[in-house]
Each structure stands twice: as structure tokens, then as C-alpha cells.
Amino acid sequence: MTSESASAYLRYALLQHTEKIREPKSTVLFRRGDRACGMFVVLTGRVSLDLGVDSIVGRSYGAGALIGLPSTLTRQNYSMTATVTEDAELGFLPPEALESLLRQHPDLYPPLLFFLGEKIAESRENEGTLLDRRVPETGATGNRDTVMVACCQAKEVEMEARTDD
To answer: Where would I find the H helices in the chain?
Structure first.
């Protein structure tokens, strides 16, 4: 199964079981640290994922993106904040429904694992980009150290962000 066909099959199966909702621009779907209440499939519009207020790391995702999937699968807190940046139509799937779907359709596990593995690989490729960003020397290491800590924290959550698109 190719990357595109695995992703398409997984999205199609998830969409068949989601509740369709509309959210206006600026709606926060979830915040970093919130308990996972489910995942979203972006149907139209755009959703950004970032570390929260004044984040140096953020990405915008459009139609087809899977937002919050890792936290929903693991039932752990969200590691990023998801905000609607363009009015959006979304499919919502709570953890119980995702688990039930996977139990009823074990054939979804291979494309799910393939999809997550691909996103982890992409995250590793992008890891270097985050850590290679140059920070001007200030004479004191405080600013540089702060940015390096932020980049390391971003790397930690980058895997979730990459699996959500």
C-alpha cells in the first residue's frame, strides 16, 4: 500500500464515523495540556497547531489533516494547541468511537501504523531544521539557551504535530 493510498483509506474510514461540526475562525479546539477528548479531521478551512501563546513553532493544516490523533489514541493530554484559522468544517471522533472503530475494523491498523510511521520519519527530517536555526549571540547565553530549550520542547511535540496532518 502506498503512502497516499494508506492515508486516503484511513481518512475515508475515519470520516465515515465522525460527527460533522462547523467552527468559526479563532475557535480553540483544544489547548496544550487538555485531556484528549477526541480527534478532528479537517474537511474545509484551516487549523493551526502550536505550543500556545508566543510559540515559535506552529503549523497550519487544511483539508484531510488529522488533528489530535496521537493523543486520542493514547488518551494522553494534548501536547499542542489547535486553533481554527479559517472557518472550518470538521469531523470529530471521540476516543471511545475510535477504539470501537479499530476493534470492528482491524484492517485499519496497518494504514494507521503506516501513516504514523511516515509522520515520525518526516518529523525526524524536520528536527534538524528546528535545531539548525541560528540565534544571534548576545554576549550572554540566556537568550540562546531559552531558544534551544524551546526548540527541544518543540522537537518533543513535533511528532504529534506531524502525525496530525
So the answer is: 3-15, 69-74, 95-104, 109-132, 142-163
What is the extent of the structural domain holding 9?
A: 3-163
Spatial separation of the C-alpha atoms in residues 46 and 84, rounded to whole Å: 6
- 130 and 124 Cβ atoms separated by less than 8 Å: no
- Domain of residue 99, CATH code: 2.60.120.10
Place of cell 487549523: 47
CA 102 to CA 150: how far, in whole Å? 35
d(C-alpha 58, C-alpha 113), whole Å:
24
Model confidence pLDDT, tens digit, residues 50-82? 877 666 667 889 998 899 998 998 899 998 899
Residues 6+ apart with CB under 8 A from 66: 10, 11, 14, 39, 40, 41, 115, 163, 164, 165
pLDDT of 159: 43
Q: Is the pTM of this model over 0.90?
A: no
Write out the three cell numbers for 52.
500556545
CA 41 – CA 29 distance, rounded (Å):
12
Q: What total of structural domains would you count in the chain?
A: 1
